Amino acid sequence: MRYVVTHPRRVRGESVHQTSWEKKLLLSKEREEIQVKVQSQTAARDPETLRKEIEEAFLMPEVEHFVETPEVRETEARMKLWLDAGYPVHLIGPTGCGKTSLAMHVARQFGRPVVWINGDESITTADLIGGYSQIENESVRDKYIHNVFKSKDVMKVEWVDNPLSLACKYGYTLIYNEFSRTKPAANNVFLSVFEEGVLELPTKFGEDRYIRVHPEFRAILTSNSIEYAGIHRPQDALLDRMVGIYTDYYGYETELRIVMEHTGLEEDVARRVVEIVRYLRDRLPDAQKPGTRACIMIGKGLKMLNRSSGIGLDQICIDVIANKTSSKKEMEEKRELVCEAIAAVQEGSGG
């Protein structure tokens, strides 16, 4: 017998008197609507579309004003030799010597997409390989009140690849910048990638737990050679599986061309900047040595300089090298060193 409402009442626009089968019918309709909505959203996001979206999130920045000299080309040739031989290349050198720009330039020459990781203390294995992502729809009702119940539905669960798994799966070139700033435990996943050619996804279930590394996969890692704050020594087992190329500060002519290309300074002004920085570099401790980046910053500061501002070359140089200063006394020592450098360069150039 079907239940017939003889005294219909409505609360907040809904009927108070509903049978259990009517409640189930209403619930099933709601679920169908949600399912159709989710399917329509995911239909437009096919695997290829999702992959491209992830790639865009990790693609490296563009290289601008890259300067090639015989000195640079020699290092490039060594990098290509080892990468073509199937070995990852570990670029090691002091900060500001051009490691990152060189890595990006060489990676582009292989004609494959390039994905990018920036190492830091917070990087985990999941940041490298990916993890499960889920869309959750939760509706809460209390079943102890008429026409009310409680339910929780997880609508969709899917694995999302991160840079390392993307590069291994599709044969991309991976650039791992500031590799030594990541805690060693997070990088253990590279051991099997570099040795056995297999990437293990520890948190993934089923047969897709292992990825056979694509033959076009290449990896370039960069690290600082000096014990700056936040630097970790990578595990020896991992270092044994890659080739190390030490890159120091470029020679005078290469550094001059880089500064001119990046700043647009006239050659005589650019020479003055480079000579001042190289003078400071020879006299400051390793962790405080200014690199080519400092030359570019000083050059751009000079380009923006307004003579009426009262700011001189000495103050621009001091501002650029002040970041690695721990006390007022040390700052005064650097100020004296900058003035000494400027005077020495002026004297050497004939005033």
From TrEMBL:
Pfam families, alphabetized = AAA_5
What biological-process terms (Gene Ontology) are attached? gas vesicle organization; ribosomal large subunit assembly
The chain positions of domain AAA+ ATPase read 85-253
Give any Gene Ontology cellular component: gas vesicle
The reaction(s) catalysed by this protein are: ATP + H2O = ADP + phosphate + H(+)
Tell where it localizes: Cytoplasm; Gas vesicle
Broad class of the protein's primary localization: cytoplasm
InterPro entries the UniProt entry points to: AAA+_ATPase, ATPase_dyneun-rel_AAA, Gas-vesicle_GvpN, P-loop_NTPase
Q: Which residues form a coiled coil?
A: none
Q: Name one GO molecular function term.
A: ATP binding
- Which of UniProt's keywords are assigned here? ATP-binding, Cytoplasm, Gas vesicle, Hydrolase, Nucleotide-binding
Which NCBIfam families does UniProt cross-reference here? gas_vesic_GvpN
Q: What family does the entry list?
A: Belongs to the CbbQ/NirQ/NorQ/GpvN family.
What is the official name of this protein in its record?
Answer: Gas vesicle protein GvpN
Native organism is: Methanothrix thermoacetophila (strain DSM 6194 / JCM 14653 / NBRC 101360 / PT) (Methanosaeta thermophila)
Lineage, highest ranks first: Archaea, Methanobacteriati, Methanobacteriota, Stenosarchaea group, Methanomicrobia
